[in-house]
Amino acid sequence: MLFNSIDFAVFLPIVFLLYWLLANKSLKLQNALIVLASYVFYGWWDWRFLSLILFSTLVDYTIGIKLKSEKNQTKRKILLWTSICVNLGFLGFFKYANFFLDNFTAAFSFFGSEIATHSLDIILPVGISFYTFQTLSYTIDVYKQKLEPTNDFIVFSAFVSFFPQLVAGPIERATNLLPQFYKKRTFELSKAVDGMRQILWGLFKKIVIADSCAELANQIFNNSAEMNGSTLVLGALFFTFQIYGDFSGYSDIAIGTSRLFGFNLMQNFKFPYFSRDIAEFWRRWHMSLSTWFRDYLYIPLGGSRGGTWMKVRNTFLIFIVSGFWHGANWTFIVWGTLHAIYFLPLLLTNKNRNNLEIVAQGNYLPTARELLQMLSTFTLTVFAWIIFRANDITHAFHYISEIFSASILEAPKLTDSKEAIITMLLVFIFIFIEWLGRESQFALEHLGLKWKRPLRHALYYTIIIALFWYNGKEQQFIYFQF
Amino acid sequence: MKKFAAKILKFSIPALLFILISFTYYHISKTKVEAKLTAFSAHAVLLMGDSQIQRLHGDSISQGAKNLASSGEHYYFTYQKLNALIQNKNHRIDTLILGVSIHNFAPVYNRLFNLNFAEGKKSLKRYLYFLPIFDDAGFITTFDKVLKPLISGIYAAPDFGGFYESTNSNPNEEIINKAFNMHFSIKQEEAKFSHSQRDYLYKIDRLCSENNIDLILVSTPYHFDYKEKIDRKYFDFFSKSLKKLKHRRHLNFIEDPIAPRFMSDANHLNKLGAQKYSRIIGKELKAEKRDILHR
C-alpha cells in the first residue's frame, strides 16, 4: 500500500479509530492490532512475501531468546551468525543474485571463457533492505548485551513489521522502538496534531515536489543522448530534488503516522541540502542508515581510531557498502566510492565534525562563506546523484561528458518548458520553506503556529489544494526498490 | 481524542463545503447538459468522431445536420455521447456520420482512454458530464489519480464538439512530422494499436442498430506525405477492423490524391477542402438516401 494512495487514505483512519476506540483498552490489543494492520498493509502489495517477514521475525525472535540463556561464547557467536546469514541470505538472494551472476559471467567472458548462465526471474520484496537491517540490529544488540531480548512474540512482530516504517524506513533501532511497544500508548492531542502536520508536509514533498521533478528528470535522463549540457544539468537538479522529496517525504509520512499511534521514530533527514561539507551531508541524509552502518560496521571495524590506512579502508568500505545497499548496480557502488573520496580529506584533516549545528542558527541568512560552502557541497552532491540515477556506468559517463562539453552554453531544451519553469518555481518555494523551518524536525513543524487560525488553516489548505492538483503524476516511491 | 476529532471536523468544514458545492454544481450542470443534448437529439443527421469529421459542414452534407465531432475524441466518448443523446425517447436521429481513419487506431488513442496518461485525464475533464461515473468500461477504474481532472471536469464546460474551420493551407514538413509523431510515437511498453477504439467502434455500430440509426462511415483525405509515413500495418489493421462493419456504407477518401492547398495540416481539411468534401459527401448520400436527406 502506498502512502499517497486512496487505499491508504481509507486504511489509516480505520486503523486509527480501531486503535484508539477499541484497542486502547489493553496494551496487548494495541500491539496485536498493529501487527494485523501491518500485515494487511504489506500484504496489500503482495501477500506471498508476508511469509518472508514472518520467517525473519521467527528466526530473530528465537535467536534473541536463545542468546539470553546461552553463556557459551562460541555458541552465542554461532547464533549471531545464523541470524546474519539468514537475513543477509534472503537479502542477497532477492536483491543481489542476478548482479553476482551477471558479473560472474562477464568476468569469465573477459578472461576468454564463455559460460552460459541465465538471469533469475526474481521479484524484489518491497522493503526487504529496511526490515532486514532492523531485525539485524536487534540480534546484534542482544548479542552485545545492549538490549534485553523480548519474550513477547507479538511485541517483536510489531517491532519488525510496524507498518509506517516497514517498507522504506526510517530503519529503527530496537533500543529505541522496542521499548515503546511495552508501554501502553495514550492519546496525546499535540502529538497527533503534530503527526498530521508532518504527514501533510511529507505528502507535499512527495506529490508536489518529487513527482513533478520526476517527470522532468525521467524525460531528461531517458533521452540524455539527445540533450545538450545545460538540459542535462537541469535533469541532474530535478533528480536531486526528486530523490530528496521522495525519500524524506516518505520518512515524514512514516514519522507522522507513527505519532498518530503514539510512537516516536528517529529523524531520518535534517535538511541535508543545507550542509556545508560532505560530512555534514551524511549526518543529515538518511540518518537511520548511515548511523546503522556507523554502529554495526564502521565502529566494529575500528572506525577512525586506528592509523591512516585503517581510516581510509573503513571509510571506503562503509561508503561502498552503503552504495551497494541501494541496489545491485555498479552505479551505486561508484556513487558510494565517490562520496568516500569527497569525505576522506575531511576525515584525514580532522575537519569531519566541523559543522555539527544547522547552518545560520538563529539567523535569517547565512554568511557569504556559509553560502559558498553550501553551494559547493550541493554541487558535489548533485554530481554524485548523476551516477546514482544513471542506468549504468556508460550512461553516467556520457551524461557527465556532455555536461562538460561546449553544449553547456546552449539554452536548455525541454519538450514542455512551461512545466519545467513551474516545477523550478515550486522547488524554490520548497527550498524557502525548508530554509525557514530548518531548525525544526520538519519544515512545517513550527511554521505558522503563531499565526491566527484562519491564516494557518489557509496555509494547510494551500498545501492540500496543491496535493490535489499534482496528485496522480507518479505513484511509486524511489526507495521501495532498495 | 474528542478534541482531536473536533479539530479535524472544524478543519474539514471548508473541504466539506467545497464537496457539497461541487456536488450541487455538478447536478445543476448535468441538468443543463441533458437539456442541451435533448435539443441536439432533434437533429436527424449527426456528424460525430474526431477532428477530421469536425471540419465538415453539416449543412452541405444535409440540411440541418449537426456536427458534434471533437478533436482527439476516443470512440468511447462518442459512444457515451450518443448514448446520452438517445436517452431522449423523442429523439429524431436517423443518420450518424462517423469519422474513421487509419490514425484512429494509433497508439495515441490508448492514451486518450487511459487515466495514467495526461491525455486520458484531459478526456475525463472534457467528457465528465457524458460519463457514467461508476462505469464498467475500464476508464474510471480508480479515483486515485483522477481527483484533479474530476474536480476540474465539474467546473469545466463539457465538450459537446462542433464544427471547426481552418484557413491554413499547404502544410510544411514540420507540421506533418508533428502530427505523425503525436499519433504514432510509442513507448516500448505501450500497445501498438488501439484495440479499445475498435471495440467502441463496434459498440457504436450496435447502438445504432438497436436504435434504427443509419451509421455511415467517412474517412477524409490525408496529406500525401503524412500517408507515406504511416506503417503499412496500420493500414492493414484499419481494413481488418472495418471488415466487420461491411454492412455499413463507408465513404473512403483516404486514397484521394488531394492537393496540399486543401489541407490545413497532415490530416485535416482546411476551409476549402472541407467545402469540397462536404459537398462530395452530401452528393453521395443524396444519391443513395434521398428520402432521408430531404426530410
What does this structure look like?
The complex is a heterodimer of chains A (482) and B (295). By secondary structure, chain A is mainly α. Chain A folds into 2 domains: 179 residues, no CATH class; 213 residues, no CATH class. Helices cover 66% and strands 0% of the residues of chain A. Chain A is built from 17 helices and no strands. The radius of gyration of chain A is 23 Å and the shape is globular. Chain B is an alpha/beta fold. Chain B is 51% helix and 7% strand. The model of chain B has no long low-confidence stretch (mean pLDDT 90). The chains are: A mainly alpha (482), B alpha/beta (295). The interface between A and B is medium-sized, with 20 and 18 residues.
What is the global morphology of chain A?
globular
Tell me the span between the first and last alpha carbons of chain B: 72 Å
Number of strands of chain A: 0
Major sheet size, sense and barrel closure of chain B: 5 strands, parallel
SSE string of chain B, helices as H and strands as E: HEHHEHEHHHHHEHHEHH
Poorly predicted sequence stretches spanning 5 or more consecutive residues of chain A: none
- Beta-strand share of residues of chain B: 5-15%
List SSEs of chain A in N-to-C order: HHHHHHHHHHHHHHHHH
In total, how many beta strands of chain B?
5
Compute the number of structural domains of chain B: 1
Features:
heterodimer, A: 482 residues, mainly alpha, 2 domains, 66% helix, globular, B: 295 residues, alpha/beta, Rossmann fold, five-stranded parallel β-sheet, 5 strands, 7% strand
What's a concise summary of this model?
The complex is a heterodimer of chains A (482) and B (295). Chain A contains 17 helices and no strands.
What are the SSEs and their pairings?
The complex is a heterodimer of chains A (482) and B (295).
Chain A: H1 6-22, H2 27-46, H3 50-69, H4 73-110, H5 128-143, H6 153-161, H7 174-177, H8 189-222, H9 229-260, H10 278-284, H11 287-298, H12 308-326, H13 330-348, H14 368-389, H15 393-403, H16 417-436, H17 453-470
Helix pairs in contact in A: 1-2, 2-6, 3-4, 3-5, 3-6, 4-5, 8-9, 8-16, 8-17, 9-14, 9-15, 11-12, 12-13, 13-14, 14-15
Chain B: H1 2-40, E1 45-48, H2 51-54, H3 58-61, E2 66-67, H4 75-85, E3 95-99, H5 108-112, H6 118-127, H7 147-155, H8 173-184, H9 195-210, E4 214-219, H10 224-229, H11 232-243, E5 249-252, H12 271-288, H13 290-293
Parallel strand pairs in B: 1-2, 1-3, 3-4, 4-5
